[in-house]
Amino acid sequence: MTSTKSSPATAKERGRPRTFDTDVALDHAMVVFRQKGFHASSMADLGEAMGLTAGSIYKAFKDKRTLFLRVFERYISMRNADLRARLQHCPNGRARIAKLLQFYLDSAREIEGQRGCLVVGSTVELQSLDADLSALVRHAVMRNRNFLVSLVRQGQEDGSVSASLDAETAAGLLLCVTFGMRVVGKVQDVTNGAETITMLLSILD
């Protein structure tokens, strides 16, 4: 007669939590949150994208809110690193602004554009997020705005941007346009990209 009793080693193996690459799982969850937003992203959607059961997600990230926080943090870090690399060798403030506009234009095209921006999408959901999540999103938006202000002022200091320009106003307009690109990109590719950038740069004269 064959015993069906599990050996201690077998029982231990069955009890082990499923291992996975956290960064890969976060990247897959990121796609869902970008496409659907925080509230519309179900655990079933996230589990399917991440290749994990709901139980595994809860064990690793506690709940959907915590998962979103990890994803949001990773999204910001990856985007900032990409942008910094693009701006690294620009000769002046105006060139950095032009490169930043191209960065947003590229992000608003094809599959990347259709997935949308996690910051912009979360901003649209702002009123339905809890206080801490709302503060996180607001901080991300203001950080973008302040960075644009710094680029305009760099251009004023090196002479590539008009010194008479109000840096706060110009940065606010550029922020609206860059965020608008990501919204339009959900529907269709932003057209006339080069002409759009040229027109936007003309406000810096």
Reconstruct the topology from this structure.
Layout: H1 8-15, H2 22-40, H3 43-50, H4 54-61, H5 64-87, H6 93-107, H7 110-115, H8 118-124, H9 131-158, H10 167-185, H11 193-201
Description:
The chain is mainly alpha-helical and 205 residues long. It folds into two domains: 19-72, Orthogonal Bundle (Arc Repressor Mutant, subunit A); 89-205, Tetracycline Repressor, domain 2, CATH 1.10.357.10. The chain has helices spanning 8-15, 22-40, 43-50, 54-61, 64-87, 93-107, 110-115, 118-124, 131-158, 167-185, 193-201.
Tally of DSSP helical segments: 11
CATH level 3 topology of the largest domain: Tetracycline Repressor, domain 2
Q: Uncertain regions: pLDDT < 50 for 5+ in a row?
A: 1-17
Mean pLDDT: 91
Output the radius of gyration.
22 Å
**What portion of residues is helical?**
over 70%
The secondary-structure element order is HHHHHHHHHHH
**The CATH fourth-level homologous superfamily of the largest domain:** Tetracycline Repressor, domain 2
Query: Class of the largest domain in CATH?
Result: Mainly Alpha
Sheet having the most strands: none
Alpha-beta classification: mainly alpha
Going by CATH, the architecture of the largest domain would be Orthogonal Bundle
* Overall outline: elongated
